[in-house]
């Protein structure tokens, strides 16, 4: 059984055949291999040549457009080029298949040949112990020499690689954190309701008239891939907003001039939490508005997924803060301070002690400070405002309005003056913070206090109006509150007395904006009312329809308004882009 | 636009509004050919698992080289030519290392399975994966025609390459530079009958070498093989040349083309005992130094290795452009300049990546130093072996040696020749 | 001596068993990490058409000789122009299908009359090499309805896409295998 008798005639015959098959297969393999190589070479050389000739001739044609002969030549060459290329592809597919087949034949024949030869037990090599010892010794030396050679070569290569640029590059890196200056921030719309969060802009060239049906005044409109109630923010020639559904969370960067989406940033999702997580339809997965410090954009979703992108769409970092326990779904917008992103993460009940205010380092996402908050879930947005020569970070949650130092998260003052499911954000009006207790009252707090200022620093309280969603706006003399049913209330900033009311007769969710003294009010049905305000009332000047539902607050940039409709982002402007 | 006098419609972002057709023209449907999804990954997993199971059964129970050969041909056809060599267990090392070090990396479930299943089987049955499942192993095993013995010292030396390859592949994969194992897979171009010229040439050369030197990739390069070698040392059941007791007939000595059969050692000369002990002690003491030298080397070469990363390469390019050391721009630098990212931010990003490379370099070099030191120590131990045995680590369970054993032949005759010749 | 050897052997066996157990635990640990992270899914490669710079690497860098990347057409975005910037040379000699007027080196774009003044442009994928020449001009002067996509009947779904490695703008990304296309028309189809 060990060795098949190799002498039998049949077997010798077979061996001869196999040998011949192997030789033939080998020859075929070589032939096909050569053909393949030649074909590949041709593809590289002649194909490229023909194409460059065609390109040249086409150039020539530009100067002599009526040269029929030239046209004919180009067409011929072009046909040759196309056909040749297809032929080459077919040819290489065929010949590589043939090469494979002939190689299989060769190897098969050789194997069979070796197999039918049977086993010839090789001569017993005497492997004596000294020999074994020697081979171990040799191995040690060889291995050691090899490793040394490897190390040496590698180090040699390293030494000869120019590294000057690395040290130069390191020198070029500033350790200073990167972020835009206050002036730059003020020139842009870097957060919910613009820098300062008060919904006030001094821009004077903002369009007042447009017509969606005829396309007049609308520079572009672009479909937003995923839904969201967050408002657009803008930085120079880029507009950012976010969208999300159960499975995806995305950031979109729009080009201001063309409206095209420059990039889409996917925020990685933690799929574990998704199954249990249901969101209220009125809030959605992407209610919080993004924010930018001029270097990075920050985004947070109802799932507690926080992320930072650079302006080129690269995801810098992301972290999951955990799915917040929120009655209507998490909706607080982001705020920035220097190179930090501030997150008001109020959730669950006050007794659960789960609410926190976070400051994360924008470049790395590392936690800079955290302040525990004695409040339940809230829907207001944090706000950094200049008070004297310092800054205060104002937060509103039932029942406390608390001011923190944005630098270190230390509490400055707190006032017990709001109540309920607070949703409309606070603003700074004059030297006072205006906060709102929904369906109850609004309140003005002086900001120069310390500790619990409930008894000492509440300037006034007005119980004529308490908007649930829409944030107020102020021109320094009056504070204007807009409720969701579209009634505007003007309240005297000095004493909190109601001066007048104006009814737009349209439901509103977007917060109003004061543009160089003109009030812009956007209704849910997409009608933008503009007009002036004086002591006696609101003087309507224009009402512009967009024919699309609008929930988000518009963003104002020089000469432009960006409005997020339910499905599209609109750019409204005076002239051509 | 100016050329053709078409006025710009500013209503939408589209320069030319999509027309409303009056002739009843319907826009064509897109064709969306889908990737292999659905049940296909499951089928791949089942095929892998079955092949592993069958291979182990063939090696340990059936002891049939012929059946193993058949399985090899099947695996080559399925995992190689049909699945085009991807997904494969060898490449999955990179996915897994990236997965373990980068929390954002999404690894396909099938890849995890291809990484883990052979490891578990190796812990139980030895390297039956290499024998009958791996398409790269199969192509080499099948094309082995006239085996030539590799000297022991060369075998030990070249095997070190596989460790270098493994360490480098993990280093580069973790840093996000490249998947070198996939990029330089010599046989994948054969499976696809398609590929870049350099890979085709490399594959061809390795294939021809494989006619004479058994499984050159497996033995001297394969990074997954390096892991399987170690796990195979711990396997629950080992490949036995003889089905019963070895009668030291030496018939199998020549059977193994992979140098995995070692003759028994009976008497080690007492005279050298003291010397051997001293040498062993020396290497044990040297080990930490070798590791330290390795780590230092790894750290020193990190800057040039870091250039394999696109961001570092881009930073270098931008720096050169900024300092008038390079002419013109590249596609990447052009894109970078229009992307809105600042140069400072790119430099910072590159610096962070380079720092990561330097940190990785310590581990890369330290690991290779440890392997070198460890190998020197193992080569200084006295072999203790009383029968003709397949070396646990080196044996790829190809089954060639079974029929060389007269005891096996006896057994086959007893059972009526059910097994292989 | 025999006894000593046996003891040695059993000690070795014990060590081996222990190490094997430890290895199995380690493998289990890897699975556990995967389970905990939940970051395992089946993904495919795709080009983000908004990031694509039409550099032409797709034609040459794919591991396949004939690239898996082809030009696709988002018909909803197309203006059906008579003079298509993706079809014609920037300054065509005449508005007809002559080879001297076409941008596509392979003649892979087919131009068919629909109704005055509209023409339909379809792509013969068997001819398209993924050179992106038409995409560049369509995006530059036209609506950008022509764009590059990885075609999954051809893509072998490499572990790490060879084109992604050389893509100058990071336009390649992994997408869920059940929605493997990023068409430009707002994610339809």
Strand order of the largest sheet of chain C: 1-6
Give the rounded overall mean pLDDT of chain C. 85
Uncertain spans of chain C, ≥5 residues at pLDDT below 50?
none
Provide the structure class of chain C. Answer: alpha+beta
Major β-sheet profile of chain C: 2 strands, antiparallel
Supply Rg of chain C: 27 Å
CATH fold name of the largest domain in chain A: Methylamine Dehydrogenase, Chain H
Count of DSSP H/I helices of chain C:
4
Counting helices, strands and paired strands, the structural category of chain A is alpha+beta
Strand order of the largest sheet of chain A: 1-28-29-30-31
- Number-wise, the strands of chain C total 6
Distance between the termini of chain A: 89 Å
The residue-averaged pLDDT of chain A reads 87
List unreliable stretches of 5+ residues of chain A.
1-6, 120-126
CATH class value of the largest domain in chain A: Mainly Beta
Please tally the β strands of chain A and state the result: 34
Tally of individual helices of chain A: 6
Helix content of chain C: 25-40%
Q: What does this protein look like?
A:
The complex is a heterotrimer of chains A (577), B (421) and C (189). Chain A is of the alpha+beta class. Chain A has 3 domains: 9-116; 129-173; 182-573, YVTN repeat-like/Quinoprotein amine dehydrogenase (Methylamine Dehydrogenase, Chain H, 7 Propeller). Chain A is built from 6 helices and 34 strands. Chain A has helices at 9-63, 68-116, 129-159, 164-172, 182-187, 271-274, and strands at 200-201, 218-223, 233-235, 238-244, 249-255, 261-266, 291-292, 296-300, 305-310, 315-320, 335-337, 340-345, 356-361, 367-372, 383-387, 390-397, 400-404, 411-416, 427-429, 432-437, 441-446, 451-452, 458-462, 473-474, 478-482, 487-492, 498-503, 513-515, 518-522, 527-533, 538-545, 555-557, 560-564, 568-573. A 5-stranded mixed beta sheet of chain A has the order 1-28-29-30-31, with no helix packed on it. Chain A has a 5-stranded mixed beta sheet with strand order 15-16-17-18-22, with no helix packed on it. Chain A is elongated and about 120 Å long. Chain B is an all-alpha fold. Chain B has 2 domains: 44-265 and 389-408, no CATH class; 280-378, no CATH class. In chain B, helix 2 (65-82) packs across helix 6 (135-142), helix 7 runs antiparallel to helix 16 (343-378) and helix 14 packs across helix 16. Chain B starts with 39 loop residues before the first helix and ends in a 6-residue tail after the last helix. The model of chain B is unreliable at 1-13 (pLDDT under 50). Chain C has 2 domains: 1-40; 43-176, no CATH class. With 189 residues, chain C is α+β, with helices and mostly antiparallel strands. The longest helix of chain C is centred in the N-terminal third of the chain and has 36 residues, at 2-37. Chain C has helices spanning 2-37, 57-61, 133-141, 162-166; strands at 43-47, 69-73, 109-115, 118-123, 146-150, 172-176. Chains in contact: A-B, A-C, B-C.
